[in-house]
Structure formats: structure tokens, C-alpha cells
Amino acid sequence: MERETESVWDYPRPPRLEHTTDRIVVTHGGVVIADTTAPLRVLETSHPPTYYLPFADVDMSLVEPVEGASMCEWKGVAKYGDIVVGQERLSRVAWWYPTPTPGFADIVNHLALYPGRVERCTVNGEVVTAQEGDFYGGWINSWVTGPFKGAPGTWGW
């Protein structure tokens, strides 16, 4: 069944948290980092979806917390982690919200990651393209249309 096209310009601001049954598989160096059918999506105007994966469906032995945090006006304070696969360390590729704001309470015990910093991320078998820029973690699929925030010149959108 073909999925209905979504324009990021129809997504809300403030963002919306959505439960989905999309199958997400994340791999690096041939190692499965995550495989879930219970992710959450955060949808925000001008951004492709960011997926949050349940800790239970992530190989958390590959995730090493690192120093530092950032603040999201909607979700709260994020913590960061490296992902270590064999001898390769992927620096600050993952983040999570230990105590998210009430509106995003469901993302507790969920991990997000930058799809462009691992070997492969798929949604329902389709390989995703990473949102441009080094700050946002959006996942672009064939059914998600832009233009997307993140490219040079889009910071003020």
C-alpha cells in the first residue's frame, strides 16, 4: 500500500508527537543498532520527521553517554551519546530526553539519532535521506516533501 504524501509545511508548530507502527531499522558496519515497530515521530513545520526509538528496541550496549546537553523549547533538556560499533566511535550521534516536558512525556526512554551519521536507516524498508545541516535530525522519505529547514540560508525560517 502506497503511503499518502506529507508536506512538512502542513506539520504543526509547536510540534506534535505521534505514535506510529513504522518499522525502523538502523545499522552501522553491518551491526543492527535498532529495530522497532513502535517508534514515535515528532512533526514540526519545515522539518522532516524525527524518529524516537524505544530503548527496549535499541542495542543500548552500543550507546555511551557523553558530556553536554542541549535545550529544546518544546521537549526539554536532551542528553547525548556516542554509538560505538567495533572499533568505530560515532560521536554524539544519539540523543534522548531523560525528563521531557509534559507534552512530550512519551519520549522518555526513547532515543533519537542523526540518520546521516550511521551507515543506514530505513523506514518500512526505504532508506532515508538525512535532513541537511549538523543540528537537525530529520528523516526524509519518498512520502515526505519539503523544502526542508537545515540547508544553508534556512536558519531563519
What does this protein look like?
The protein contains no helices and 15 strands. The chain has 157 residues and is mostly beta strands. It has a single domain (17-145), classed as Metal Binding Protein, Guanine Nucleotide Exchange Factor, Chain A, CATH 2.170.150.40. A hairpin with a 2-residue loop joins strand 5 (40-44) and strand 6.
Short description:
With 157 residues, this protein is mainly beta.
Which properties best describe this structure?
single chain, 157 residues, mainly beta, Metal Binding Protein, Guanine Nucleotide Exchange Factor, Chain A, 7-stranded antiparallel sheet, 4-stranded antiparallel sheet, 0% helix
Architecture blueprint of SSEs:
Blueprint: E1 6-7, E2 16-19, E3 24-28, E4 31-36, E5 40-44, E6 47-54, E7 63-72, E8 76-85, E9 88-96, E10 110-113, E11 120-123, E12 126-127, E13 129-130, E14 139-140, E15 144-145
Annotated CATH architecture: Beta Complex
Largest sheet: 7 strands, antiparallel
> What is the mean predicted local confidence, pLDDT?
95
* Domain tally: 1
Number of helices: 0
- Count of strand segments: 15
- How far apart the termini lie comes to 34 Å
Output the CATH homologous superfamily.
Domain of unknown function (DUF427)
Amount of beta strand: over 45%
Radius of gyration: 15 Å
Just give the CATH class.
Answer: Mainly Beta
Shape: globular
Helix content: under 10%
**Could you name the ranges where pLDDT drops below 50 across 5 or more consecutive residues?**
none
Structural class: mainly beta
In order across it, which strands form the biggest sheet?
2-5-6-10-9-8-7
**What's the helix-strand series?**
EEEEEEEEEEEEEEE
CATH topology: Metal Binding Protein, Guanine Nucleotide Exchange Factor, Chain A
